[in-house]
Amino acid sequence: MKHEHKWLASISAAILMTAAAGTAPLLAQPLPEGWISVTACAPAAPLIPTNTTESCGSDVLDPIMAGLVTTDTATGAVINDIAESIETDDNTVWTVTLKQGWKFHDGSEVTAASFVDAWNWAAYAPNGQATNNWFSSIVGYADLNPKAADGGKAPEPTAQTMSGLEILGDHQFRITLKGPVPGFTAQLTYKAFAPLPASFYDDPAAFGRHPVGAGPFSLETGSPDTGYKLTAFADYIGAHKPSIAGIDMRIYTSGEAAYNDLIAGNLDLMSNIPQSKLVDGQWERELDGRVVVQPQASIRGLGMPWGDANPQLAKSEIRQAISMAIDRQTIIDVIFSGVGRAATGWVPPGVDGYQAGACGEFCTYNPEKAKELLAAAGGYEGDIKIFYAGDSSDKPAMEAICNSIRNTLGIECLTSALADNASFRSLTRSGEATGPFPANWTMDYPSIDNAIVPIYSSKGSSNRGSYTNPAFDALIAKADTQPHDEAVRTYQEAEALLANDLPRIPLWNPSTTIGHSARIDDLAVRSNGRVDYASVVLN
Amino acid sequence: MTETILATSPSVNEKDRSLTGEALALLARSPMVWVALAILAVLFVMAFAPQLFSSVDPRYCDLMKARKPPEPGHWFGFDIQGCDVFSRTIHGASASLSVSFLATIGSTLIGGIVGLIAGFYGGSTDAVLSRVTDVVLGLPTLLGAIVILATLGSAQDSGMVWPIVRLALVLSILGWATEARLMRASVLQTKQAEYVRAARAAGAGNGWIAIRHVLPNSMAPLLVMATLSLGGYVGTEATLSYLGLGLQAPVISWGTAISDAQPYLSSAPHMLVFPSLFLIVTVLALVLLGEAVRRAFDPRSR
Amino acid sequence: MTGYIIRRLMQFLPVLLGTTFIVFCLAWGMPGDPLAGKCGDRECPEAYVALATEQFHLDQPLVVRYGYYVADLVRGDLGTSFTGRQVSEQLMAAFPATIRLALLAVTIEVLFGVAIGIASALRPGKGFDTGNLLLGLVIIAFPGFVIANLAQLIFGVRLGWFPVTVNDPSSLYQLLLPAIVLALGHQVTLSRLTRTAVLESLESDYVRTAHTKGLRPSRIVGIHVLRNSLIPVVTYIGKDIGGLMAGAVVTESVFNIQGVGGLIVRSIRSHDGVTIVGAVTVIVVTYLVINLLVDIAYAALDPRIRYD
Fold first, then answer.
1. Which residues of C touch B114 (CB under 8 A)?
2. Cβ of A12 under 8 Å from any chain C Cβ?
3. How far apart are CA C112 and CA A11, in angstroms?
4. Which pTM was predicted?
5. Contact in structure between B273 and B284 (CB atoms under 8 Å)
6. ipTM of the complex as predicted
């Protein structure tokens, strides 16, 4: 028996150690009055607006930062925020006048230098910012980003500031662009153009842990492990003044966990409900109708290999046949439980310049026509392989597309997962992918040029399929010199050209799904899919 | 003298035949053994000739039928893509059983050998082998699987056999360490037994003692682990498939079916329950068989 | 014994050096450009790529990079991850929850696993034994995520007996349900190992001798059988504590525990080599320590076992 006692003693020791392993409270603290708890995910980079391109970091920064302009939540129109006015005669030289009285969360005033210094810092190559090339249209960018000699390292820049940015006064500055950019004010809605306080330059790393902006909420405490606590900023005078007192952003690593907290009443607001919970209206039942479905300014497409990797798929007729073999509506209805809309072009609805049906019949499910096109192209030998990243949620949709192609065209179609996003990106960007792959685009700013120029122009920064079409490039160049309305029409002509080649097959425009607790009475969602916290009304 | 000492040793060469015969006779009398064998026989036929059980094409999927519950002609219902769950479960037996059998055999062999050598020889041999074991225990399966799979071939090639062998290889390379620890512990204990000392005193060689005396008497924990890990490896295969590292189309497997069905646990449980049932029955048969074999061959249980 | 322990401790350093090198090679040997996909839907600008390449010496050969890593390590610096955070800071944030969860789970698992194993072995083939076998099989055959999800749905959401998810910092009560879920699966293997070992002991000569000597059955089981059966059991428990310290990826994700498992998976997915090496090295150290303790326990349980 003695030995059993020893055994018990060691077990009780283990229990004591467990208890001692932390002085955590037994139960979670309740939220302060007027606060809401929302889902968030751990940011993958320091929280510097010019270096944050992934959605987790952007979700945290969005309510902290304010910019020259913002979008109207209801109409999606670009409206002035910190800017009093942004004026131009030729789309090249822009004069920005700021409103008086804007303050950063640290109490310092927002001035012209807050913008100019921030932009210069972000564009300066040695700072290596992920949004560096957003400033490439400003005169003097090249001096801050000297080109590397072949195979070598880039030389040290000759200047630290862009000559195209001139401070005219405390609240006024002038931007000179290399050429006309009709949609420049829309670009300014992007967070990379947010002003930064003078304290930023003392210690950018510290700022990355505790960002300071001029937005409606200031960061109280936070880390990627514990989540972020944001309090409403008393001195905020912008367009998104909230009525709630604060936001408790909780880090969730799985959507299911967050959803279960939501239906158990432990969470107030959740975006992107897991697909499996949408089935047969399960979420609407479990949340008692407290749901919002908001179309997103983004598009899901199927990138097609362009060139030698798969000569058969380079044929337009075969691409068209494949596109017409995909039963988009049924896939949306079944896999996404009807959330989202079949895409009929390359520009998401709601974006300035959107035209319905830009892709025409080629993006409409038509099995007979698809078979005819395939036969006309001489059939297809071998199998089609659709590549996707194994750590994404693309699997069900890609399998459904494959089955649709198999059932319609009789071509063997297989899905092939790559280990992670990095290997998926490496494969699709190298041009070695022998088959289609999911290609998504979320609008950085709501204007037609952002939906097509970066992806399909020869020099586009995100032209992953290496698509080249001289006629398309010519139209883009033409649009650059035109005033806004004419430019939009030219962009639309360019978009129409894509229907023949289908460099990407448009699939669908997703919608943001949001569920909320009974504490929240009303809320509105912005076109970027994020909740406008200013619109949140508590019961 | 030698004769009497050896007579107390559990596995004696001259008596082997009769002992084996006795064990088999013992096995043949147990109804559980027959049930287990019958289940395994059915599973093997299913793995080699799935068309005998189901005439439905497992890869024909109609999205309009997605997640539909069982109906006549489709007794297990439909999965998320609208494929027939019964047909896919039948056709999935082959890949799932191959992977888990090969991986179990692989990891048990590697782990058994490493554990036997480390435990039996001790000293610096033990130090080296055991520290390697510690390191392998600490390696994340995900990391090892990504690198080994990439080394063994690219994502662009596919087939029916190589992916299965490749996956089993990865699981063996990453999974033997627990088996090695168990085996070593068991050997450490067994080699102190009187019959081992006696054999040593009688002048038997190291290798002979290790294989004839220590090995058979140290196998029990390893066998328990092996029968259970057969089920576990189907689960690991599921997790890896889910991450894009396991089996992929055109290969059909239980693991993939289970992991795909998991999110729909509350809305379409049939997609998960049927493949899982097959898995449970398989492991049940193996555990029963393993237990019976262990008892029949364990010299101490007579 | 003391000499043996000192020899074992002296092995730590070379093993750790070897481990960091192996893991370093594996982490940076993953296929694909680690910087691909770091800039959302867009391609990363050249300036960004150039800075990251320089910071992480991505243009240097692997051995040179390992040299830089070791040089930092000697100074006590585990490095800075792609996320811009210190690896040591990330580990300090992830390990407390994992350690608490691991200890809680192991405690539950040992209590139930050993007890169930002994009870099954004392009456093999009877109702309790068979029922336990079948239940165990169901638990084994259902993947961990199913059990974790079901437990969360039933006991957390529907019945409200336990918190649905775990906050940071985690409390004991919040960790109880995840620990039970974790222990459930491991308990099956543990109880079967215990059962087999106890059965073997019960059938062995010395127990028969003890019986014939007229010792009380409870005393036989308590002293002779249990003690001799514990070696495989202790081995498995040691392996399990190590495994749990490495983080339970699925359970952590279901219950939203910010632990080591999630950290490692996230780091692997984002090719964050520095974090991977740091975390895995800590885990290997855990295994080294635990397995040393287990080996010492062998000698205590079975005095015949000697290492010298």
1. none
2. no
3. 12
4. 0.88
5. no
6. 0.87
